[in-house]
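step=encode ok
step=design start
structure_in=
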């Protein structure tokens, strides 16, 4: 597992999947959570089309816990991404971010816009740009699953969460909504989550001061390169209407809603996900330092 040193000496790990076409640089992938990037796998086989570099954010996966936990705040992680770019010897890179990683990607674009070629945001969180996701919007996405045998209990739990009556049991009950198929593979994927996350790192990521939505919106409005935003049709975590609003902040963005997908669309229908993302990413000529 390769590593590099961040600005403060913290050892940061990353994982490489695939080889990619000759002369084509890797796609840097930012996980959500913050969570061990292992949950991304190779994004359903995307590594057959482009080499993928999966970053373990500090305090997760193979990366070290920093001496200063506050350095795990999202805006401060931007310089870890920049250090990775320099470590890889890339003048410019394509970036793919999932869920909470989209916040980090948005902040990186705001600070280093000339370093990003193409940007793919998958089931993105919208915290960094200040988009409000109402409870009704989440319930609307969840109602699309009403034919599932587990729906009544899960929907009741989601209603309780939306109403401010969240419990640990309720959060466990709504997990099925994050997947297009609540099968054994999805259940195993979800069960591994607790071991892949550190609650202190998660809290630090979104701590006060992490986000300045107005400034980020202004920066994204000036970002001209191509952007893909991919939403899962049935995902209450990143409902398509909220992702569409996010897409509207960019001057050159495409919105794709993957049919039947939840929050992890590469698990729900790998071929469909890979076809969409591989076509968007294409084969970008290498630009190395």
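sequence_out=
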């Amino acid at each position: 597992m390769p590593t590099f040193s961040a600005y403060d000496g913290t050892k940061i790990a990353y994982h490489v999947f695939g080889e990619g076409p000759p002369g084509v640089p890797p796609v840097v992938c930012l996980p959500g959570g913050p969570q061990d990037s292992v949950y991304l796998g190779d994004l359903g086989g995307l590594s057959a089309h482009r080499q993928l570099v999966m970053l373990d954010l500090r305090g997760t996966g193979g990366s070290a816990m920093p001496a200063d936990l506050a350095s795990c705040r999202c805006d401060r992680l931007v310089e870890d991404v920049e250090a990775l770019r320099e470590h890889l010897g890339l003048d410019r890179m394509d970036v793919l971010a999932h869920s909470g990683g989209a916040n980090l990607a948005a902040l990186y674009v705001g600070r280093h816009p000339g370093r990003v070629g193409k940007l793919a945001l998958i089931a993105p969180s919208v915290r960094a740009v200040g988009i409000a996701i109402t409870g009704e919007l989440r319930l609307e996405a969840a109602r699309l699953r009403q034919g599932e045998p587990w729906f009544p209990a899960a929907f009741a739990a989601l209603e309780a969460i939306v109403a401010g009556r969240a419990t640990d049991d309720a959060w466990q009950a709504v997990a099925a909504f994050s997947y297009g198929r609540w099968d054994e593979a999805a259940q195993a994927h979800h069960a591994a989550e607790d071991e892949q996350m550190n609650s202190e790192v998660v809290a630090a990521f979104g701590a006060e001061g992490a986000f300045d939505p107005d400034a980020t919106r202004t920066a994204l409005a000036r970002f001209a390169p191509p952007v893909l935003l991919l939403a899962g049709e049935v995902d209450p975590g990143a409902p398509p209407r909220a992702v569409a609003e996010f897409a509207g902040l960019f001057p050159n963005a495409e919105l794709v809603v993957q049919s039947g997908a939840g929050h992890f669309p590469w698990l729900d229908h790998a071929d469909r996900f890979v076809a969409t993302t591989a076509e968007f990413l294409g084969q970008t000529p290498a630009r190395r330092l």
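step=design ok
step=annotate ok -> Residues 74-88 form the longest helix (15 residues).
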